[in-house]
Amino acid sequence: MSLGWVTIPVSLFVLMTAVAVVRLVELTTARRNARWAIDRDGIEYGQRHHPVMITLHVCLLVGTVAEVALTDRAFVPLIGWPALAVLILVQAGRAWCMRALGPRWNTRVIVVPGLPLVTTGPYRWMRHPNYLIVLFEGIALPLVHTAWITAMLFTIANTPWLVVRVRTENAVLWPAVGPAARGSSWSCSPTSSTDPCCSRCASPTRTSS
Asked: Is the pTM of this model over 0.90?
């Protein structure tokens, strides 16, 4: 596919279009779920993090296309097919997270008082599965077409954001956690970017990506 003086592989165009559609669906779902949370007296935290996340993911898409087009990256089956498989798996993983959390899934951190702990789906075993998904996705998506520079730069830029985001969520929930609960296997720390704290602690819940 030729765009003036650059050429974009048709397979890359199809892939980026599919990912962009998925992103739009996620943002639409997040807005709807945010209204659901706010209607239930939810309080948003870390508002400044959200624009950074949007910028990072836009740069991931644009950077992948630009690197492939400008440096004429070839599709390397030994790298591309496994990367595509990982990309498909992480999309399925995110859908699993969204299904488990229902209206509590969001791209923002919104604390809603009184909701019980989500212990279904991947949250049965992990505290922040969606952030792990983002990490793998940021590597796999560019590598489908061998855009290793974009994969590296996104990972470097996204890691501090993930650290700040997780710390913010923990800080929101931990003050409401009792000492006894902190000694439990879950430690009553967030099990996901959208999970509540333990219902046995009668502490708030939150919604986030």
From this structure: no
